Amino acid sequence: MPEPKHFGPSRRPAALVCGLALSLLLALPAAASADDSVNVSLCKQILSRMLCKNLGEFNYVGRPEKDVYIIGMFYASKPSEMLCAVLPDGQVIIQDRTWRAMRRVFPYTTDSGGKCLSVKYSSPDCPVRKAIRVCPPKTAQDAREHQQETFWNRPIPKILEEEYKSMSGRDQQNATAAPATPAPAAPAAGGAGAQ
Length: 195
Fold this sequence. Notes:
Blueprint: H1 11-27, H2 34-51, E1 59-65, E2 68-75, E3 78-87, E4 91-96, E5 103-107, E6 109-110, E7 117-119, E8 132-134, H3 140-152, H4 156-180
Antiparallel strand pairs: 1-2, 2-3, 3-4, 4-5, 6-7, 7-8
């Protein structure tokens, strides 16, 4: 009976490195770019509502092509993957990747700024009924714009009242701070220094 052939000592490290690299490539999910994060979040929220599961039970797996995302989860007590396509014509299509038996289409709208996506969908099995709304994370520029917008959208008497309060607060601080500083002591008349 012939003995099984073994890799020689020089081939073992190469095979080990190739196997390790391949397992890492298959195990690591492809990272979503900043532009895709809103679409992936929309897909996860629709699936969460559709299957009445917590949002944390869905994982981004990858992106096989532009605007199509693979979302992983446990469905029917086994690992499953769903394809989610966010199309520019205002539709989100969700389909089971393995069996392709389930396919749903959801219309979505964008807000006036074109940043936030909204879907009106409620599942009879799920108690949550409000519309799904997904927006990109706020940046420092967005916070400044919001602050300026809210400042100028207030009524003028309210602005003047706030300015008066801030100015009177400064006056009170200045008035209380002035007596707190000790006055310099006046030299005593006829002291040791006077001759």
